[in-house]
Write a structure and sequence with these properties.
Blueprint lengths: L10 E4 L7 E3 H9 L3 H9 L2 E9 L2 E15 L2 E10 L6 E3 L1 H7 L1 E4 L4 E4 L4 E4 L1 E2 L5 E4 L4 H4 L11 H4 L1 H14 L5 H12 L3 H19 L2 H6 L4
Parallel strand pairs: 1-6, 2-5
Antiparallel strand pairs: 1-11, 3-4, 4-5, 7-8, 8-9, 10-11
The chain binds zinc ion.
Length: 224
């Protein structure tokens, strides 16, 4: 695992209070930016226009298309038909309709999800709202395993312009992560290097600027 092939922690919520499988276009963008190239093309081809609506509290959300998005379960990659809603910041939710199709059984005590129809069992988490969460990709913890000691520091850390675009990339790759969370990973990886001692601070201020000035975050008031 290197800096370049890290993937972010994309989460899916298994929601028993929602019938459909949906995601907002904002989060779809995050998911798509983390797919492999081949997967991305399949997702693009699967696009179909459609109409529908969902309510979250008082707010109505319009569905305007569906796409198929892959999730790896053990040895199986399943493609989930997902409705895309415009606006808002709705995460990827797998509703009861889809849960039935895969024969989902959730074992809250052991934090396990069994897919009866596919003979797979995977670990789940419970988030602070009591929702069942499935982690699709490796999380931040993988990032911190990359520590540059005695290795050549990558160009994107030593070069001003490359660093700026790398910051944008990292911010997106980690699901519009905050400055603090990316900083933590970067410091952990580079603080033992000469380069970090020389211009680490400057790098961190660029990172902060990029994270805090992201248009999408400002629009959805994320990143707080
Ligand atoms: Zn952002």
């Amino acid at each position: 695992m290197t800096f370049e092939d890290m993937t972010e922690a994309i989460e899916v919520i298994l929601d028993t209070g929602c019938k459909g499988t949906i995601i907002s276009d904002f989060w779809l963008g995050v998911v798509l930016s983390n797919l492999e190239r081949g997967e991305f093309e399949v997702v693009k081809k699967s696009e179909k226009l459609c109409k529908g609506r969902y309510y979250f509290g008082e707010t109505e959300y319009q569905v305007y298309k569906t796409v198929e998005i892959p999730i790896q379960f053990g040895n199986q990659k399943l493609w989930f038909v997902t409705e895309i809603v415009s606006g808002g910041c709705i995460p990827w939710i797998i509703g009861t309709g889809t849960q039935k199709l895969i024969g989902a059984i959730i074992d809250l005590e052991n934090k396990e999800l069994t897919l009866q129809k596919f003979g797979e069992k995977v670990k789940v988490d419970i988030n602070k709202d009591g929702h069942v969460i499935l982690k699709l990709r490796n999380s931040f913890s993988n990032f911190s395993r990359v520590v540059y000691i005695g290795h050549r520091v990558p160009d994107w850390f030593t070069n001003d312009n490359l660093w700026r675009s790398k910051c944008k990339k990292l911010h997106l790759q980690f699901g519009h992560a905050s400055f603090e969370s990316i900083k933590g990973m970067v410091v952990h990886s580079f603080d033992k290097t000469e380069e970090f001692k020389n211009f680490g601070q400057e790098r961190m201020s660029v990172l902060r600027e990029v994270c805090e000035n992201c248009n999408i975050c400002q629009k959805y008031k994320k990143n707080s």
